[in-house]
Specification:
68 residues; mainly alpha; elongated; binds zinc ion
Length: 68
């Protein structure tokens, strides 16, 4: 599961929602982010949860042998 910067789409591994250059511009304190940026981050987190649910369902179908 790769994380991407919610602003520029660059792949990130730093555990934040922003890449290093966007972190430098907006800082690491989420409470100081502008509203549009908070919305982007909340929206991205929701997508990640949905993807995780879908892949869990695929695994259980495979376990039941429905795709054999
Ligand atoms: Zn970025």
């Amino acid at each position: 599961m790769q994380n991407r910067c919610v602003i520029c789409g660059k792949v990130i591994t730093n555990g934040f929602n922003l890449c290093e250059s966007c972190l430098r511009e907006y800082g690491r304190d989420k409470s100081r982010y502008p509203e549009w940026l908070k919305f982007l981050i909340a929206d991205t987190n929701r997508e990640v949860r949905q993807e995780r649910r879908i892949s869990q369902r695929e695994i259980s179908f495979t376990d039941l042998g429905l795709y054999d």
